[in-house]
């Protein structure tokens, strides 16, 4: 008797710049059907700013957070609930890497490789669920097992994370996570653990904890980065008193400090100008890339129309 396979649901969002292009939108829909997905429910809507804040709350302190919100609210998006066997993993594989430049070089046949414009305008969004606590615990202990592989430098970090992902998949067929998903989840949990650890070290603070704190304490608690060999004293030093003999020395120190401040201010100004130039250059490159994308779509439309006219003429002759 064959074992019964259940369908898995996953969220798929086609972002505003895709919805604005009928040609790209139809291509992605064809890819969804060709990869044996069932479209359970679809809706076209413009995501509100409040909904976007809730949706992307995990990125709130990242530098691209405001840009992400502005873009996802800039126009209508197509939201689909897809069903299929191993739907979450299959959809993420079909989308490709989050960073478009990686997708274009590593996986050019994926949706983001073909239709992504930038890391923000990367065409699609897909869900990655870590609802099973046992999967998260196995991820934490798998990192401990492969810790030496990260340190010895014999293989790339991304390859080690792929091995960890395969360990999870071999232990449970429902734990279908990619190496990138495992890496992001582990770093997110470790960041929370370090934050709680630092909070609890400060005197006067009420004790805090976080989910999976005990597991991280077990694998990281005795490391020097968590338990320093020595700590600098936090006691305030007594203020020094100076006599009249030290006045000349103090004046010379004030002059040198003033020069350092002027030099630092000039350096900050130069860095600010340099950063502004880089931002303008990045903005220009993105505009050029978007223009090239529009021209490619327009050329494709012209080719399709020419093909239709040619076929119509052939049919008329027949």
TrEMBL record:
Q: Name one GO molecular function term.
A: kinase activity
Quote the SMART domains the UniProt record gives.
Answer: NDK
Is this entry keyworded Metal-binding? no
Say which species the protein is native to.
Answer: Harpegnathos saltator (Jerdon's jumping ant)
Residues recorded as binding ATP, renumbered to this chain, are 15, 64, 92, 98, 112, 122
Entry similarity comment:
Belongs to the NDK family.
Q: Which UniProt keywords apply?
A: ATP-binding, Kinase, Nucleotide-binding, Transferase
- State the residue spans of region: Disordered: 242-266
Active site location: 125 (pros-phosphohistidine intermediate)
Looking up PANTHER family in the UniProt record yields:
NUCLEOSIDE DIPHOSPHATE KINASE (PTHR46161), NUCLEOSIDE DIPHOSPHATE KINASE DDB_G0292928-RELATED (PTHR46161:SF3)
Q: What Pfam families does the database record attribute to this sequence?
A: MADF_DNA_bdg, NDK
* Name by which UniProt lists this protein: Nucleoside diphosphate kinase 6
Listed InterPro entries: MADF-dom, NDK-like_dom, NDK-like_dom_sf
Locate the Nucleoside diphosphate kinase-like domain: which residues?
Answer: 7-150
